[in-house]
Amino acid sequence: MSEQHAEMKSIWYLVGLMLLAMGVLVLAGGVTDLLSPPARATILGHLRPNLWWGCVMIVAGALFFLTHRK
Length: 70
Description:
The structure is a single chain. By secondary structure, the chain is mainly α. Helix content is about 65%, strand content about 0%. The chain has a domain at about 10-35 and about 50-65. The longest helix is centred in the N-terminal third of the chain and has 25 residues, at about 10-35. The mean pLDDT is about 90.
């Protein structure tokens, strides 16, 4: 009988994958708000935080995903 050795992935690999997916969703929401502005403007809405945080989450997720994918 042959044994198969299953190699476990690091938790940071999965964290990177989740950050990547959530960053894409946040960025898509920001682009949607940019193309058709909401009816009620928020106080700091002109800074477009969802675009910034979407990009930050994508970069962090890609960094975790690529460095821990072994």
